[in-house]
TrEMBL record:
Subunit structure: Homotrimer.
Domain of life assignment: Bacteria
Keywords associated with the record: Lyase, Metal-binding
Enzyme class name: lyase
Upper lineage: Bacteria, Pseudomonadati, Pseudomonadota, Gammaproteobacteria, Pseudomonadales
Cofactor requirement: a divalent metal cation
Functional summary from the UniProt entry: Catalyzes the aldol cleavage of 4-hydroxy-4-methyl-2-oxoglutarate (HMG) into 2 molecules of pyruvate. Also contains a secondary oxaloacetate (OAA) decarboxylase activity due to the common pyruvate enolate transition state formed following C-C bond cleavage in the retro-aldol and decarboxylation reactions.
Gene designation: rraA
Protein name per the record: 4-hydroxy-4-methyl-2-oxoglutarate aldolase
Record InterPro entries: RraA (IPR010203), RraA/RraA-like (IPR005493), RraA/RraA-like_sf (IPR036704)
Coiled-coil annotated spans: none
Family: Belongs to the class II aldolase/RraA-like family.
TM ranges: none
Organism: Marinobacter qingdaonensis
Length: 159
């Protein structure tokens, strides 16, 4: 994949949507992008766990965790599984944990913050439904690109 530099992509494709600031970069890959797969869940990462176990094919999982800062939706073991199964990255509207290990993983990860408590496992969550946060709607099949400058969303592949 070509270099992902979101300011350059915004200049070249002014129609892209830009997610409101507030996300931090935690993964070993600081710039990443790909086709969107969505998960909507709240303090239960059961669906995230299922999905990282499947082939990612260079896609990005966008997880709407309801901005909860009471549990982490991703830790080192799931991040490693996502990387080994070919996911380009995860964008989590919520928290992550094990950030030192995630930072050494060949995966892009952005989230609102960190929290040491793991999520509950109740088997709840929705897969591939449109999710909205940061002023943008993420639709499965669209594309997302992220780096240290921010996150952008496009209806078409840009790189």
């Amino acid at each position: 994949m070509a270099d992902i530099i979101t300011p350059d992509l915004c200049d070249e494709f002014p129609e892209v949507e830009v997610v409101e600031p507030g996300f931090n970069n935690y993964g070993g890959h600081k710039a990443f992008g790909g086709e969107i797969v969505t998960v909507k869940c709240f303090e239960d990462n059961s669906v995230v766990k299922e999905q990282v176990g499947l082939p990612g094919n260079g896609k990005v999982m966008v997880v709407d965790g309801g901005a909860s800062k009471r549990h982490a939706l991703l830790g080192d073991m799931l991040a490693e599984k996502a990387a080994s199964n070919g996911w380009a990255g995860l964008i989590i509207y919520g928290c992550v944990r094990d950030v030192d290990e995630i930072g050494q993983t060949a995966l892009g990860v952005q989230a609102l913050g960190t929290h040491p408590r793991k999520s509950e496992k109740r088997g709840l969550g929705d897969l591939n439904v449109p999710v909205t946060f940061g002023g943008v709607t993420f639709t499965p099949g669209d594309y997302v690109y992220a780096d240290n400058n921010g996150i952008i969303v496009s209806k078409k592949s840009l790189v």
